[in-house]
């Protein structure tokens, strides 16, 4: 019996688990005791990783769609040649940017990196990832405020804070281990505060819940800032020494009076003042946000307003503080830094000549071939396909047919593609329906690589199970196409994930995420290592649970953090007479991940979840419209589509909203094609709708 | 004796209790000794061993492997004495029991996590400890 | 108060426990032919050597000390005079009692096969002594034939197989485990046994055994004329209640065995019965409960036997597990049959008008206990929106004040 410690590849907590393997199968999964992140516990998803590909498993060889619509199984070499050939043909015929890629936040660092290197450097085209749907807003917000996409917290801060404020975040469902760490918090007088229009599971277990109106969070945050300044709750020492733009901010927020804040948020003035006093009375106040903030139409500014509050009150860089973004996917942090999509490897600017040269030298390609600009964002890629500009698409480890906002636009796009390569562990995912090439790849249990979690911790994925014949990993698949493309020297240094890791390590030298002190073998059977961890300074960074900004120094040229703010936009999709309800969306359960591709194989989860799409409706609204629990309704979205749902009646959602869990394809059938101005992250929670009851047939 | 009270109104089907059960026993095969399902109205229902006063599993056990501890009131399972005849699986009126999914020899039987306590008798159910919604709580009851 | 219990198996042992729990001071005498406490359900594990005699014991090691019982081991009851409250044992010893429990179980039925009466090399599969003999048999016998392919016959075949000995099975029924399985579920076992070298003959009886000058059977003839070599014959073709000693007692007996009501009372107010001795529901859990109920009533507490659902069993042979409940083969088309048959898992539910009457689970028995309740209580399952195989307790969930579950119907 052998034991392998590896990293879970679901959410961004990146729990570590010990897998015990006997006779080629996993006989026991034990969450790693002592691992700083999860110390011997996990959620049901990580515990059930051993269930992957036990009931659904495609053949190991790739397949190419034939004229008559059927698939022909081919050898890997043939598949690589085919795809490489088609990519080149399309580029020759229609232009460089007529092919594109959609990557993910759930593969290894090395896999994003090689995909970004092949597609963005060598092929000089666009690749975006599903990280765009999740963390783009936080990343852009960080860059604007800190000067680098560097969330400063460590998970231990949840145990040290005396005011834990969740904004648009529901950790009981979305980040169970985060909540377990909150429960470990023994700080006397600790309070949990939730800002969410919905009475989420976390709100139900919080000390305070502020059910603000949808998308009034930015106004409320500016109002709070104004009140902090008016009552002089400002930590002037901190603000003067470590921030820039305070005077402008102070002037700006004057217009956000208590009266305005109350009117727009729907909270009473007393409630707002109560929240203010909670913040002020806390010794270590921490703010935590997730998709409720990131997936809005002014997400970046909202995130920055949260960080602004942390700065104003001096709650930055100390234990238990910070304006902290809870990342969604297991390697979103890794993909933000190393996918080569929105920045060079390790976070540099595409426009920075010197930096491009440095990176080129490390990865082994001519500087001319390094991407010159950031990628087209996800929505522009889909629009480009629909407009006939993009003819070829290669997606990996993602399911846009289901998860893309207004997902019918993806369905249309898929049909227009001349080349549509889907690379996944299942050929049954919705997105694979229209593919022209399917690349079956192994799940995380059969490969190795590196993940970076939400607190900047590099975590090891190590091979747990052996591969069967012809089974290959995402890395090897991309490498295969790269060689077939004739990359030659340009891919010479990329022979394996381990070699790639060394390249990326070198790229990080001198950058914010400098992890030159971390070697591949250091990560095996370890407690993970947070960046920065520069070579030669390991002793300085020996603490296993480190936060940033304790010295008040940020990544901007001045070393000071910026107050970034802007007048709130009006809601681009306000409720109207025709569509009077907000179509709110979000995570529905712990057991279901996103589109259920993997979690459908877990019997524990299947036993306790609904098989058909459902949503939550407020009790009073339901009563008015004669809807009872488990009735069916047809929902008409302002995006022009409609879909059927079962109804669960509850007081946990407000009268003016329906809340639809994201795990059913009907949900994103109805979400809008609307994006944050700066991050281009979809406004998943901003749709509007109306509904009709579907009368039961028969009796 | 102690039993676990189940408040279905609070249960959200997050399966933290199931995770806790597997982790507490470091179960090979990843089987849990409890389960959560949804009923026909799709409301989650945690179904846990009750350590019944009149335990059918004990009456039906023909090796004595299932037996009631007179001191704690818990129905205990001795896997070494068990003959894997599965009569208990058939007899539990609430369908809580199953055999392990690797060797099909061991019955997945709740023991109120007494193995976590120093004296080996005090119940310390990890499921109760970890439930984020306080849907399951340990309570003292009269038999 | 003196209680006397005859029989130290499921009914007798549990009765003694219950009596002692109720009455700390009463005198309890346990009379049994058995010298040890052992579970007859796992005798095949003793045969194969998988389990020692000690591990067959389903009760406390020092049972008689723990419960303060005067245990008269190895003694047989030979007659009863209820009017005088006197029980007569072998050797003529008489014991008086205030209350008596008859839990004497049953013995192997030896069918009147031509030639059998003159033979010595045959035995049942019922008591520890039978197994002691059978353990030695493979040393000299090469052709062991087992008559009867019910649970006991298959136990025997499996026990031998574990020792590397292949028996021949003969049964009049169309397939093995005929009472519990339908043809499809039986086929799995028939194929598995055949693959393991166990020859099987179904649809035939044994019409004659031929015995040599040494009084040993050397071959048998089946009812279809087939002749098979046989140097040892195991009979598992049914049992008969141990009520011989009651024939002159005046107690009411039926053609099955001792008659007693749902409180365990026989036709005599101070004589009670429990377990296989009634000949009605010869399964372990019924014996246990009847023993407890009878004991409760003997001690003055009024309790009734409520669980009469006896057509239920589980089995595990050759790595194949099956649970059988109720009516698994419907007699006509008025019943609805739902079947799932994939990848080694075979599930079948028989129902009519929304009530499940029978269920067979093979290959996956998880959580099957709920089906027993559905059948025994005749619950209308039409409100359940799940496939019948996946019915669970959630739709009937009810927590009592003391946090036990109950069925909310």
Describe this structure in words.
Chain A is α/β, with parallel strands linked by helices. Chain A has four domains: 2-51, Phosphorylase Kinase, domain 1 (2-Layer Sandwich); 63-121 and 331-511, Rossmann fold; 152-325, Dimethylsulfoxide Reductase, domain 2; 581-694, Barwin-like endoglucanases (Beta Barrel), CATH 2.40.40. Chain A has a seven-stranded mixed β-sheet with strand order 5-4-16-15-14-6-7, sandwiched between helices. In chain A, strands 21-25-22-24-23-26 form a six-stranded mixed beta barrel. In chain A, strands 10-9-8-12-13 form a five-stranded parallel β-sheet. In chain A, a hairpin with a 4-residue loop joins strand 17 (449-452) and strand 18. Chain A is globular and about 70 Å long. The mean pLDDT of chain A is 96. Chain B has a single domain (2-140), classed as Alpha-Beta Plaits (2-Layer Sandwich). Chain B is built from four helices and six strands, in the order E-H-E-E-H-E-E-H-H-E. Chain C has 409 residues and is an alpha/beta fold. Chain C has helices spanning 10-22, 43-47, 63-66, 128-140, 151-162, 183-195, 284-298, 369-376, and strands at residues 2-6, 27-32, 70-73, 77-81, 86-89, 94-96, 99-102, 106-108, 122-123, 144-147, 168-171, 199-202, 206-211, 217-222, 227-229, 232-235, 239-241, 271-273, 312-317, 320-326, 336-342, 345-352, 355-362. In chain C, strand 22 and strand 23 (355-362) form a beta hairpin. The longest helix of chain C has 15 residues, at 284-298. Chain C starts with a strand and ends in a 33-residue tail after the last helix. At the A-B interface, strand 3, helix 7 and helix 24 of A face helix 1 and strand 2 of B.
């Amino acid at each position: 019996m052998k034991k392998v410690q590896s990293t879970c590849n679901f959410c961004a907590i990146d729990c570590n688990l010990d897998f015990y393997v006997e006779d080629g199968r996993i006989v026991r999964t034990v969450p790693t005791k002592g691992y700083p992140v999860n110390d011997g516990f996990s959620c049901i998803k990580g515990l059930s990783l051993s269930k992957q590909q036990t009931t659904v498993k495609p053949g190991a060889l790739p397949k190419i769609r034939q004229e008559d619509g059927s698939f022909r199984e081919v050898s890997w070499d043939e598949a690589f040649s085919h795809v490489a050939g088609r990519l080149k043909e399309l580029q020759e015929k229609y232009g460089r940017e007529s092919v594109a890629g959609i990557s993910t936040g759930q593969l290894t660092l090395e896999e994003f990196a090689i995909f970004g290197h092949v597609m963005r450097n060598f092929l000089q085209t666009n690749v975006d990832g599903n990280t765009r749907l999740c963390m783009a807003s936080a990343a852009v917000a960080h860059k604007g405020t800190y000067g680098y996409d560097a969330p400063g917290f460590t998970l231990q801060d949840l145990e040290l804070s005396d005011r834990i404020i969740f904004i648009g975040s529901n950790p009981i469902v979305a980040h169970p281990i985060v909540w377990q760490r909150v429960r470990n918090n023994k700080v006397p007088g600790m309070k949990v505060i939730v800002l969410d229009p919905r009475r989420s599971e976390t709100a139900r277990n919080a000390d305070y819940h502020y059910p603000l109106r949808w998308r009034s969070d930015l106004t409320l945050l500016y109002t709070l800032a104004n009140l902090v300044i008016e009552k002089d709750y400002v930590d002037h020492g901190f603000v003067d020494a470590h921030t820039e733009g305070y005077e402008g901010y102070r002037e700006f927020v004057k217009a956000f009076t208590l009266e305005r804040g109350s009117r727009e948020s729907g909270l009473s003035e007393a409630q707002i003042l109560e929240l203010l006093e909670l913040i002020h009375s806390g010794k270590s106040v921490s703010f935590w946000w997730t998709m409720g903030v990131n997936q809005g139409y002014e997400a970046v500014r909202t995130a920055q307003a949260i960080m602004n509050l942390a700065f104003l009150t001096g709650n930055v860089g100390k234990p238990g503080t910070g304006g902290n973004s809870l990342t969604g996917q297991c390697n979103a942090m890794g993909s933000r830094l190393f996918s080569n999509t929105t920045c060079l490897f390790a976070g540099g600017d595409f426009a920075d000549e010197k930096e491009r040269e440095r990176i080129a030298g490390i990865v082994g390609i001519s500087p001319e071939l390094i991407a010159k600009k950031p990628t087209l964002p996800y929505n522009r890629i889909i629009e480009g396909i629909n407009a006939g500009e993009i003819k070829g698409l290669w997606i990996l480890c993602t399911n846009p047919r289901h998860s893309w906002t207004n997902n019918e636009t993806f369905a249309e796009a898929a049909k227009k593609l001349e080349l549509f390569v889907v690379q996944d562990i299942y050929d049954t995912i919705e997105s694979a329906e229209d593919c022209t090439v399917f690349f079956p790849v192994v799940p995380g249990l059969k490969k190795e690589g590196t993940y970076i979690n939400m607190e900047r911790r590099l975590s090891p994925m190590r091979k747990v199970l052996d591969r069967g014949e012809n089974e290959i990993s995402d890395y090897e698949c991309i490498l295969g196409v790269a060689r077939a493309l004739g990359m030659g020297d340009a891919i010479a240094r990329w022979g394996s994930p381990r070699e790639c890791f060394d390249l990326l390590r070198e790229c990080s030298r001198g950058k914010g995420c400098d992890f030159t002190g971390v070697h591949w073998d250091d990560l095996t059977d370890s407690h993970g290592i947070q960046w920065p961890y520069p070579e030669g300074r390991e002793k300085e960074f020996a603490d296993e649970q480190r936060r940033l900004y304790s010295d008040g120094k940020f990544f901007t040229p001045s070393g000071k953090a910026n107050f970034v703010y802007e007048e709130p936009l009006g809601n681009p999709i306000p409720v109207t007479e025709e569509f009077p309800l907000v179509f709110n969306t979000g995570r529905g359960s712990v057991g279901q991940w996103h589109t259920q591709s993997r979690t459908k194989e877990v019997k524990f989860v299947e036993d306790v979840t609904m098989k058909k799409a459902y949503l939550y409706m407020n009790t009073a609204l339901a009563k008015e419209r004669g809807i009872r629990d488990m009735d069916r309704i047809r929902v008409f979205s302002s995006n022009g589509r409609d879909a059927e749902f079962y109804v669960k009646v509850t007081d946990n959602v407000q009268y003016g909203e329906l809340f639809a869990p994201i795990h059913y394809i009907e949900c994103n059938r109805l979400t809008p094609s609307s994006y944050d101005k700066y991050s281009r992250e979809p406004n998943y929670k901003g749709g509007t709708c109306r509904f009709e009851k579907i009368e039961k047939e028969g009796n | 004796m102690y039993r676990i009270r189940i408040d279905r109104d609070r249960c959200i089907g997050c399966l933290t209790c199931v995770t806790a059960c597997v982790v507490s026993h470091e179960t090979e095969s990843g089987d849990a000794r409890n389960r959560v399902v949804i009923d026909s109205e799709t409301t989650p229902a945690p179904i846990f061993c009750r350590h019944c006063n009149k335990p059918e599993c004990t009456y039906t056990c023909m090796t004595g492997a299932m037996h009631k501890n007179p001191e704690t009131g818990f129905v205990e399972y001795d896997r070494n004495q068990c003959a894997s005849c599965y009569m208990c699986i058939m007899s539990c009126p609430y369908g809580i029991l199953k055999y392990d999914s690797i060797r099909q020899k061991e019955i997945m039987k709740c023991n109120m996590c007494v193995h976590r306590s120093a004296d080996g008798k005090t119940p310390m159910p990890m499921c109760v400890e970890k439930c984020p919604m306080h849907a399951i709580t340990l309570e003292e009851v009269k038999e | 108060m003196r209680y006397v219990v005859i029989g130290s198996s499921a009914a007798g042992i549990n009765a003694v426990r219950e009596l002692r729990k109720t009455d700390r001071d009463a005198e309890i005498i346990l009379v049994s032919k058995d010298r040890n406490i052992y579970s007859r359900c796992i005798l095949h594990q003793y045969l194969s050597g998988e389990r020692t005699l000690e591990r067959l014991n389903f009760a406390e090691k020092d049972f008689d000390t723990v419960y303060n019982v005067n245990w008269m081991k190895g003694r047989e009851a030979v007659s009863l005079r209820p009017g005088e409250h006197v029980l007569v044992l072998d050797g003529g010893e008489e014991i008086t009692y205030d209350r008596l429990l008859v839990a004497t179980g049953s013995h192997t039925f030896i069918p009147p096969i031509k030639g059998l009466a003159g033979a010595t090399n045959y035995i049942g599969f019922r008591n520890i002594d039978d197994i002691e003999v059978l353990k030695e048999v493979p040393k000299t016998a090469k052709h062991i034939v087992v008559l009867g392919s019910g649970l006991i016959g298959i136990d025997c075949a499996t026990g031998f197989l574990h020792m590397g000995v292949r028996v021949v099975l003969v049964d009049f029924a169309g397939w093995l485990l005929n009472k519990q399985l339908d043809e499809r579920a039986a086929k799995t076992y028939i194929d598995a046994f055949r693959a393991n070298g166990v020859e099987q003959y179904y649809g035939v009886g044994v019409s004659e055994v031929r015995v040599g000058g040494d009084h040993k059977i050397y071959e048998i003839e089946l009812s279809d004329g087939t002749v098979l070599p046989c140097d040892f014959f195991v009979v598992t073709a049914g049992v008969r209640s141990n009520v011989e000693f009651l024939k002159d007692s005046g107690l009411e007996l039926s053609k099955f065995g001792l008659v007693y009501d749902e409180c365990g009372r026989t036709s005599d107010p101070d004589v009670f019965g429990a377990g296989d001795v009634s000949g009605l529901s010869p399964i372990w859990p019924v014996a246990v409960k009847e023993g407890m109920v009878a004991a409760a009533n003997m001690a003055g507490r009024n309790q009734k036997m409520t669980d009469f659902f006896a057509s239920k069993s589980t089995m595990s042979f050759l790595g194949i597990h099956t649970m059988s409940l109720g009516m698994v083969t419907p007699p006509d088309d008025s019943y609805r049959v739902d079947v799932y048959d994939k990848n080694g898992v075979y599930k079948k539910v028989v129902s009519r008008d929304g009530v499940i009457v029978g269920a067979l689970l093979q290959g996956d028995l998880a959580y099957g206990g709920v089906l027993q309740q559905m059948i025994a209580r005749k619950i209308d399952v039409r409100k359940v929106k799940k496939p019948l195989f996946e019915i669970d307790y959630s739709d009937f969930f009810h927590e009592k004040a003391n946090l036990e579950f109950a069925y909310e119907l």
